[in-house]
Structure formats: C-alpha cells, structure tokens
Amino acid sequence: MKISQNVRHFASRKALTLPVVGSIVNDKLVDLHTRVFLEKADEDVREARRAHLDDFFDATMDTYLAALNEGYTEAEAREITHIQANFDFYNHGWVEMMEFPTDELEDHYERYVDFFERHGITIDDPLGDFRPAGGVASAPSTPEQLDDPEHPHAEGGFADDVYVDTGEDVVAGGIEEPEDVDPTEAPGVTPDDVRESEGA
C-alpha cells in the first residue's frame, strides 16, 4: 500500500499518547478518516455508512497505538489500520473505497500476519480483539460489487512493503521521525491543550 507521511503524522502519534490531548486528536482523526473515505463513495450511500466508519476508525486508533507499542514504525502501524479498513470495505462490498485491489488482500494480510494473529484479526474479522464491547454500527453492504470489482481509488503493486509518499518522492519503509515533534501540528490541537495535558 502507498500512504502519505509527513510531520503531521508524527505529531498525531505524539499527541495521541498525551492526557487530554489524546482524546481530542483521536476524535479529529476519526472524523478525518470517515470524511476522506466517504468522499470516495457515491453521495447517496455516504450517510448510511457514516456511523459504521466512525465506530470502526475509533477502534483502529487502539490498533495503531498497540502496533507502536509492539515496535512497529509509525508508517507500519498506520498501514496496519488502513489494511484493517480495507478488509472491512471488502467485507461490505465497498470496493470503490478500497486503497488496494481485492486480489492483494492476502498479500497485505501476510505482511503483518504475526501482529494480526496475536490480536485475532482476519480478513473476515478486521478488528479482532480491538472490536469495542458495544460493537460497531451496522451499515448496508453491496456484495454485488465484488462480482466484477471496480476500485478507482485502489493502487496495486505496493503489497510487498510499506510505501510512503513524502509529497516529493515515494520511498519504501517510511521516513525518519523529525526531532522535537510539536504535538500542536496534530489535527485540532492547540498550545492551550498541550499546556493542559502537561498539568494533568
């Protein structure tokens, strides 16, 4: 898979681990991911999928932090969550929202099989142990789309590694984390929020 990576991603990672600020960034990132992926779908189905995606992406924030804690890089941890989302899109037949073709599902699973198996994640159960106790809101599926899938937003050929688009180049493995990452670069975080977290 090819994902973008810049200072905002590192700032979001740092901010997610801070008291007070963490919940702000979590909610902003959930909103961001829901909006971005809904824009890939036809307008007439977006609202029916919104609650499901909000719940799903909220759960993947826990996946992201767990992967970081287990030693995965920022790019790898984030890619893991995107793979989870693509499994979910596939299961619902939402192929127009997928980031890689359906015939690369197994390849992406195998790259992180150790992490996925540790946490009960499969293609059929994308959240595994990260599924919230209250579950995830349901949404209508379009299984007929799997018969002859058209995925205009999918890009194949990137299943053997994590590929990072820096805005200037595409590199395998990701970029090095900048020094002195400022959490206020994360979505929705203000200097006041950071000061409040430091006093928490």
From TrEMBL:
The organism of origin for this protein: Haloplanus rallus
Region (Disordered): 127-200
Pfam assignment, any one: DUF6149
Descriptive protein name: Uncharacterized protein
